[in-house]
Structure to design on (328 residues):
């Protein structure tokens, strides 16, 4: 049965025989790529084809390609995109063009899901690791621009993965290194941080936040049954819910313990980005197979992988350049 995992511990731009054998046995639902896996377009396309061959199906291949600091594919073969918050200042059309053109580049090399857009609200005290990855300083702006970004990617044949549910904008520390703690009242969170995710709850996939909300639970959202229940019932998200990278230090315990806690809390999938083969083996065992409900959510999400919308790419790039969102 397909495992409840998305795996990314691929050492380089080509699959080794050992990696092929491991992925064939582990049968993860999908894969995620990083800069270490990116070389030329032809080589990257061979890698995405090889990953799908290992599991014998059209498995999704994900990447983090937002713009600014977070983009795994860069010049000279791909566009170096502005940070989302900078692009947001150019308006809704610039956000649509940014995400549509970006997604075209992904789709051309076999990548069909992007961990974007970020629906967290940029506050004055949002940690720098996150702030310029956001789309705006208030819920209405983030909702409007987040919808444009998601629709643009879907039109290019790429599935958006919104993040970080139910809201990471109040984080004052980097969750890669420590656990952010948010002490805001629940009513305040509902009116602000949760609002973009509630408004875009119809989108197919989302990623959790490694952040503790003291008004809800002592555990970080990814490992909190109470937070996952709020995501499902109050925010109304019934799409495919994956963890953020379980290798981040906001979580505690061994990789296997983190994976088990993620699934026990109610996440559909465990995202493992940088673990060793031995650690991935433990994670696969701890996560187990996808639940029947998760499999249905996954099927519904993958059904939205449509053929890209036909269009004049050169004209779209020229339009974005005229808006100041792309070097001419």
């Amino acid at each position: 049965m397909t495992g409840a995992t998305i795996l990314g511990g691929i050492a380089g731009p080509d699959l080794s025989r050992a990696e092929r054998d491991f992925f064939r046995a582990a049968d993860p639902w999908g894969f995620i790529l990083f800069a270490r896996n990116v070389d030329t377009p032809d080589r990257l396309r061979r890698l995405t084809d090889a990953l799908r061959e290992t599991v014998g199906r059209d498995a999704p291949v994900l990447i983090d390609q937002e713009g600014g600091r977070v983009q795994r594919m860069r010049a000279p073969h791909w566009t170096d995109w502005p940070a989302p918050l900078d692009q947001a200042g150019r308006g809704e059309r610039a956000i649509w063009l940014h995400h549509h053109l970006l997604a075209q580049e992904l789709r051309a090399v076999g990548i069909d899901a992007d961990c974007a857009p970020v629906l967290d609200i940029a506050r004055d005290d949002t940690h720098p690791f996150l702030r310029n990855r956001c789309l705006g300083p208030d819920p209405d702006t983030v909702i409007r621009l987040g919808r444009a970004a998601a629709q643009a990617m879907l039109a290019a044949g790429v599935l958006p993965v919104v993040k970080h549910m139910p809201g990471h904008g109040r984080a004052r520390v980097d969750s890669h290194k420590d656990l952010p703690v948010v002490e805001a009242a629940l009513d305040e969170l509902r009116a602000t941080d949760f609002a973009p995710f509630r408004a875009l709850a119809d989108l197919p996939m989302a990623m959790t936040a490694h952040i503790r909300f003291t008004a809800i639970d002592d555990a970080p959202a990814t490992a909190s049954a109470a937070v996952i229940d709020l995501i499902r019932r109050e925010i109304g998200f019934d799409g495919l819910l994956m963890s953020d990278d379980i290798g981040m230090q906001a979580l505690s315990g061994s990789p296997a313990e983190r994976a088990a806690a993620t699934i026990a809390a109610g996440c559909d999938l465990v995202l493992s980005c940088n673990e060793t083969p031995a650690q991935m083996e433990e994670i696969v065992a701890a996560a187990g197979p996808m639940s029947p409900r998760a499999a249905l959510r996954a099927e519904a999400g993958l059904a939205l992988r449509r053929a890209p919308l036909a269009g004049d790419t050169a004209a779209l790039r020229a339009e974005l350049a005229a808006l100041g969102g792309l070097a001419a």
Observations:
- The mean pLDDT is 96.
- The CA atoms of residues 13 and 43 lie 7 Å apart.
- The domain at 3-322 is CATH 3.20.20.300 (TIM Barrel).
